[in-house]
Amino acid sequence: MRTTYQQTLLINFVSREDIDEWRNLFLPNFPDLRIASWDDPSVEPESVHYVLVWEPERGKLAQFPNLRVILSEAAGVDHILNDSTVTANIPITRMVTPETESRMADYVTMACYLLVRQIPLVMQAQKRQSWKNKLTGRLVNETSVGIMGMGRLGTAVAKRLLANGFTVRGWSRTEKNAHGVQCYAENDQLAAFLRESHILVNLLPDTIATRGIINAELLEQLPPNAGLINVGRGHQLDHDALLVGLNNGHLSGAVLDVFPVEPLPPEDPLWTHPRIIITSHVASLISNTAKAKQAIEIIQADRSGLPLPLVFNREYGY
Ligand code: NDP
Asked: Residue 311 has what DSSP assignment?
C-alpha cells in the first residue's frame, strides 16, 4: 500500500538515485516524513514543509506555499539570500555541527603550519628540483594568530590553535571573553588586533559590513611577513590588494579556500602564484550523517514548537 505523506523534506543536492541513503538517515526519527529529491515529479508542492538546500535556483522556494523552515546545507546562508523571492517570514537555519567545527579547526591549524614553515615556497623549490635546506619560518610559540569572527567556528579554531602552542587573538562585532584568547571588538579595536597578528584567519560571515573588509588598508596594518588564511567568504578579500602585498614582500603567503566566483576560473592569477595555496572550498565539508543529524534536531524543534537552533538573524545578516 502507498503511504500518503502529509509533510515532505525536499533536498536539492541529492539525485533521485541517491535519495535512499538520506531516507535511511531520517527514517528512525521521522517515519511519517517523506524525504524526496528536488526533481521528484511526484511531490505535491503543498506537502513541502522543509527544504535542505545549497544554492537553490531563483524562484523555486517561493513555489512551496506551506514551507516552514529553509535548512541551509552550509554554515553560510548567502547562497539562499541571493534569491530575492524568498520571503522574510520563513526561518533559515545554518548548518554548523561538531564535525564542522572539528574539520575547520583541522584545516586552519594545518594552514597555520603551512604558513609558519613557508611551505608554499618549499613546494616551489620541489617543482624546480631545487635543494634548499636553510632555516625557514618562525616558531609556533612565537606566532600570534588573529581570528576575524569569533563565532561557532572561530571559537573552535581558537581552542585548537591554543592547544597547539600558538598565541591567539580574536576580533568580533561584540565583546567576547574566550579563555586564553586576547579579544578585540568593533572597528575601533581592529588596528590593535591586526598589529600583532602574524597570521590572519578570516572566519567572518558574508554581510554588507564584511564584504571587501580585507583590503589594502587592512593588510598594511598586519606586521611584516604576515600570512593570510581565508576560509570565510570570497567577497570579503580584495584579491588585487592580496597580490600587491605578496609581490611587495609585506605578506609572506596565503591559503585560500573561498572565492568570489566558484569554481575559481582557470585563468585567475591566484592559481599559479608561488606564495598561494588554493583549496576548493573544502575547509569543513561534512558527512551526510552529520548533516542529517542536525536537520533532524531542527525539524524536531519545529514540530515540538521549540525555538529553532542556529537560526539566521536577518537583522544582523548572519
Ligand atoms: P557565527 O555566526 O557563529 O559567527 C560569526 C562571527 O563573526 C561572530 O563572532 C560575529 O560577531 C562576527 N562578526 C559578524 N559580523 C561582524 C562584523 N561586521 N565585524 C566584526 N565581527 C563580525 O558563524 P560561524 O562561526 O558558524 O561561521 C562563520 C563563517 O564561516 C560562515 O558564515 C561562512 O561564511 C564561513 N564558513 C566557511 C566554510 C568553508 O568550508 N570554507 C565552512 C563553514 C563556514 P559576534 O560574535 O559579536 O556576533
From this structure: B
